[in-house]
Amino acid sequence: MFQLLYPLVHAIQPLLVPICFVAAWTIVILMIWSAWSMGKEAWQHASRMHQIPCSNCKFFTGNYHLKCTLHPQAALSEAAIGCPDYQDSNPMVISTAD
Question: Which 3 state secondary structure label does DSSP give 57?
Fold first, then answer.
């Protein structure tokens, strides 16, 4: 069996180094591309989640059973982005001290 493969291995041997070189760099590039796209997607998802205003809302209870008194189903979800009933619980106080 090995005697039959010996001429085939010698015929392919000059091509093995370039094929392995290209294959190795292809794998490295695909790994970098995958990591880049994963990071980009995570960044987009995180920035979308930071738009949820519930934790600073006046109607947010912080209770596990009833998170919001007005919109309990939408509280702390993407549906809460742009909530028409949002009222800031910590309004900025303008001080008049000199």
Answer: strand
pTM of the model: 0.59
Domain boundaries, the chain: 1-50, 53-98
Question: H-type helices in the chain, by residue range?
Answer: 2-49
Query: pLDDT tens digits for 28-87?
Result: 999 999 999 999 999 999 999 999 888 888 888 888 788 888 888 888 888 889 888 888
Closest CA to 18 of 28, 26, 8, 30: 26
Residue bearing tokens 């993407």: 78
Backbone CA torsion sign across 54, 52, 80, 63: negative
Q: Name the nearest CA neighbour of 81 among 62, 54, 42.
A: 54
